[in-house]
């Protein structure tokens, strides 16, 4: 496996993150809402936050992004995107497993949302122990998943 790292995002990473989103999530966005380049770019511009986002690296190359929010009672995985050329290599598993360990140590739940059409991500989250807790949005397009805090 590659050496996986995280580095803080910088304003100059905005275009990389937009192109990454298009590559990693474009098919899913298209399936649910249809891909509108202008609308997607506006959404990205409003949401891109280099103070919150991290860039995922593999052997020093930028290959993805991660946004984790630490809340009072839970860790919220707001976004994880890995370029399709690097998917299926255990990188997402590695990063999410680290978050699960952190959630255990902090005695908090890990929570995330996944698009219902993203069967591959849903299967990964289930395999890692997250459970579906709700569906929401038009036609239940988003699934809330939760890894419950350990008892005690």
UniProtKB/TrEMBL annotation:
**Would you indicate the residue range of the signal peptide?**
none
Q: Mind giving the lineage of the organism this protein is from?
A: Bacteria, Bacillati, Actinomycetota, Actinomycetes, Pseudonocardiales
Q: Which domain of life is it from?
A: Bacteria
Question: Which InterPro entries does this UniProt record tie to the protein?
Answer: Acyl_CoA_acyltransferase, Bact_Acetyltransf, GNAT_dom
Alphabetical list of PANTHER family matching this protein: AMINOALKYLPHOSPHONATE N-ACETYLTRANSFERASE-RELATED-RELATED
According to the UniProt entry, its GO molecular function terms are: acyltransferase activity, transferring groups other than amino-acyl groups
Q: Which Gene3D superfamilies match?
A: 3.40.630.30
Membrane spanning segments where? none
The record places domain N-acetyltransferase at: 4-150
Q: What is the protein's name according to its record?
A: GNAT family N-acetyltransferase
Q: Does the keyword DNA damage apply?
A: no
Q: Which organism is it from?
A: Amycolatopsis coloradensis
Write the record's keywords in alphabetical order, separated by commas: Acyltransferase, Transferase
């Amino acid at each position: 496996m590659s050496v996986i790292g995280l580095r803080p995002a910088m304003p100059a990473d905005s275009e990389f993150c937009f192109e990454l989103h298009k590559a990693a999530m474009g098919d899913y966005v298209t399936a649910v809402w249809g891909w509108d380049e202008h609308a997607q770019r506006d959404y990205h511009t409003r949401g891109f936050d280099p103070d919150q986002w991290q860039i995922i690296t593999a052997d020093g190359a930028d290959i993805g992004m991660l946004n984790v929010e630490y809340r009072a009672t839970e860790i919220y995985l707001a976004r994880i995107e890995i370029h399709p050329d690097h998917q299926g290599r255990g990188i997402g598993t590695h990063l999410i497993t680290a978050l699960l360990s952190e959630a255990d140590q902090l005695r908090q739940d890990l929570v995330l949302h996944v698009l219902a059409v993203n069967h591959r991500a849903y299967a990964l989250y289930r395999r890692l122990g997250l459970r579906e807790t709700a569906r929401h949005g038009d036609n239940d397009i988003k699934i809330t998943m939760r890894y419950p805090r350990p008892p005690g």
